[in-house]
Amino acid sequence: MTSNAPESVIEVFADIWCPFTHVGLRALDEQRTLSGRLDVVIRVRAWPLELVNGVALDRLTTKAHVEHLREQVAPMMFNDLRVDHFPSSTLEALALVERAYRSDSRLGERASFELRDALFEEGIDISEQRALSDIAERLGVERPDDEDRAAVIADWHDGQARGVVGSPHFFCGEVSSFCPSLQITKDPELGVSLRRDATRLTHFVQQCLGSSAT
Description:
Layout: E1 8-14, H1 19-35, E2 40-46, H2 49-52, H3 59-72, H4 91-103, H5 105-120, H6 129-139, H7 146-161, E3 169-172, E4 175-178, E5 182-187, E6 191-196, H8 198-209
Parallel strand pairs: 1-2
Antiparallel strand pairs: 1-3, 3-4, 5-6
Helix pairs in contact: 1-5, 1-8, 4-5, 4-7
């Protein structure tokens, strides 16, 4: 059942090349559908890890995380991550998302998902100018300008002020949760253990929206 209430917003501070966000956003979209809350908009805010950490994301570390996610959590996802096509930066792609949100909240959401699909499911280097132009054309938006690039930096600083601890960090009003769709455990002997945590994500959705998600 679709609600006729005004749009509600779940904010997610995240970077495009974060594989945990790719899983988390899909899980959130699934929860939104199950709850019947199609009035809810997912506002993906920029959390540029290359600025947060002072260095670009390491492609081999990311590949290892992707392999863990495929093995333990999402066997149907991450179909074509190519290490040799891994982006050198996501700043311009994040700016493209900002550009799309300037046009329409649903279009911004679509851009957030499509860019992640391009990287993780299609093996596309989203830092390459032609690739970004193709995605912008498909979305029907202009390429980002200086206002959009400034919005990326503004999101980063806003995230810092709000206590973002990593990508992805979910907010809905006063309710917040870091990576609620996954339980991540690191063991010095066993390595990284990942488990999809549907209960925790459902609890977050219920808390912030008062929905009946199950």
